[in-house]
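Quick one: structure tokens for this chain, please?
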Amino acid sequence: MFDYSIEDNALNNKVILITGAGDGIGRQAALSFAQHGASVILLGKTVAKLEAVYDEIITAGYPEPAIVPLDLKGATEQHYIDMADTIEQQFQRLDGLLHNASILTVLSPFEQIEQSSFDDVMQVNVKAPFLMTKALLPLLRKSANSSIIFTSSSVGKKGRAFWGTYAMSKFATEGMMETLSDELENTTVRVNSINPGATRTQMRARAYPGENASSLKTPLDIIAPWLYLMSDKSVGVTGQAINAQPK
């Protein structure tokens, strides 16, 4: 999978929604999906960043994307229902959903975790993907083959000191993926998660401010598993927790 060479047109005519599409892995996923023929829906809270990605895609001559400005921290269930209605009106279906957006807040000892910080992380990393997936499942079922990808973390597989809130949110992410995959096993919707590993992103820089970022892989270096799971080559692959950088 990690040396997978995807065909240039492997995502032709697919409609794929990416959360946190303004930078980091979300931005790269949007560019790579569009490069391979997908019409991407860019969701994020910072319009300027989404517009920059939009412009990159248009300049490259890829299919025209759509932009959905939405702050997951304040979004309600009705926001996702309305978004699903808009996507249905414009595209009639959804072939892929990448839950990439996450927040980290502050690393701290368990007993010093602030409730407001805990609530924010759970809202963005857990509740938002839950409500969004719930609203979008009818559209995903309309696709001949659709794919949901959750973004996990190594601390969502084994807890780590001082990473309490983020780790708990990623354990919940893995549980959500496994539950959905089991429920949808006999449908055309497949569900998997990817742990990016140490990658050159802003979140990584905040967590490890003293780290030499040039020693890390870029989002482009590790994008192959995302392309594979969004393509029809992965039909039948579901319930898998994949490490983008296997040791």
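The mean pLDDT is 91.
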